[in-house]
What we know:
Strand 4 and strand 5 (174-184) form a beta hairpin. The protein has helices spanning 2-17, 22-28, 55-66, 82-87, 89-107, 123-148, 206-209, 226-237, 257-269, 325-328, 364-378, 407-412, 428-432, 461-473, 478-482, 493-503, and strands at 45-51, 71-75, 151-161, 164-169, 174-184, 188-190, 203-204, 218-222, 241-245, 273-275, 278-284, 290-296, 303-307, 309-312, 316-318, 351-353, 392-394, 399-404, 417-423, 439-445, 451-458. It is of the alpha/beta class. Residues 47-371 form the FAD/NAD(P)-binding domain. FAD binds at residues 93, 157, 186-188, 356, 362-365.
Amino acid sequence: xxxxxxxxxxxxxxxxxxxxxxxxxxxxxxxxxxxxxxxxxxxxxxxxxxxxxxxxxxxxxxxxxxxxxxxxxxxxxxxxxxxxxxxxxxxxxxxxxxxxxxxxxxxxxxxxxxxxxxxxxxxxxxxxxxxxxxxxxxxxxxxxxxxxxxxxxxxxxxxxxxxxxxxxxxxxxxxxxxxxxxxxxxxxxxxxxxxxxxxxxxxxxxxxxxxxxxxxxxxxxxxxxxxxxxxxxxxxxxxxxxxxxxxxxxxxxxxxxxxxxxxxxxxxxxxxxxxxxxxxxxxxxxxxxxxxxxxxxxxxxxxxxxxxxxxxxxxxxxxxxxxxxxxxxxxxxxxxxxxxxxxxxxxxxxxxxxxxxxxxxxxxxxxxxxxxxxxxxxxxxxxxxxxxxxxxxxxxxxxxxxxxxxxxxxxxxxxxxxxxxxxxxxxxxxxxxxxxxxxxxxxxxxxxxxxxxxxxxxxxxxxxxxxxxxxxxxxxxxxxxxxxxxxxxxxxxxxxxxxxxxxxxxxxx
Length: 509
């Protein structure tokens, strides 16, 4: 079965490399005209102009240049990498790692025979390490732009026509950048809540939570999604008393329910407190700290919570302010997402959009794939992104990673399925390193054994998930994974055993 799936996949990949129909080629070939390279100005036209230098935008710009297209990227921040690199994915992972090292030193070293007289947090040094990582990576992207001959314009871009972008330069003045194809890749911003003003000091977004000057004694997190739980973990490890307030009945509502329950129990063991089905109805910042008035989501008796810092982590919203979309007639949906077709083209010819500003998962790696596929279409090739096969990771400890469908989604579709599970308590590597909390869960179609979804809670689950991502993209069966030799002892053997449990029986439990 696995060989048949591989043959089908090879045929599909070959088809992706074939040219489009003559009509499609004619429609998109205008972007291939060669121009001399140089800095964009009102008299020069680019094949591709990208507004936004985040993961989607800078990857799209580099890929376009690699495909031979004259490319300019416009970025208002003055530092490439977008929210992800500057105030999101990268700095948060730096703090997650540093805080985990502190927590391990304080709570786990002794059991491994490593004794230290005292352990303390040096927050300025921790923040300096984070900032250094961010700085090095942003400079690295600028180096990639130079290597691939992408013109980089620092400033705020807005449309003056479907083929022209006016840029207010960070250094002063303005210029007009022209392009046959313009890609909107402006990402997303923090979603605000009514009646709560974020000052990035006592009431902070994820940006402020990454730059606190001291460890708060009490931290309240509004929102039990990926970002809130990650930042709550950082400060909880460093000594904060963390309370998470969530309007919904569950944390991370998109997560597989069985995994979610185990995940919540794990976080509770780490002294994170949850108030679910709870809404914030009032905020008082008149004193030294912050007082939140909360009540049950369905209504009822109100209570007051006190904190030194409140983190608002209620999701993100597409960032399109000031782009002039209404001026050129670009259509959006009711929540502000730009509507595109399968080629990432908006209703305005020559104007494209990718990443967080369009429907789909708001994830950096999804935006990157959008960027590559979009410019492949512009260059007359075939791009492809399957949003049902994009992995998601919560970078706490243990991590939770998933790809494909949850058990609840499979049931709702009426698919006959089988489930295979394997706990890390039965994995030799996990036991050897004394870090065995977690499980692998595989869902497969009953008749064909095709894998429908994989969910992992474990240390480094974000790395382990990619074997499953490949399997799902190649329409593999659980038996395909089970019959692949996995090195021993490794954490990835748990995935093999879960696959064995799905189509037959595991060995080690």
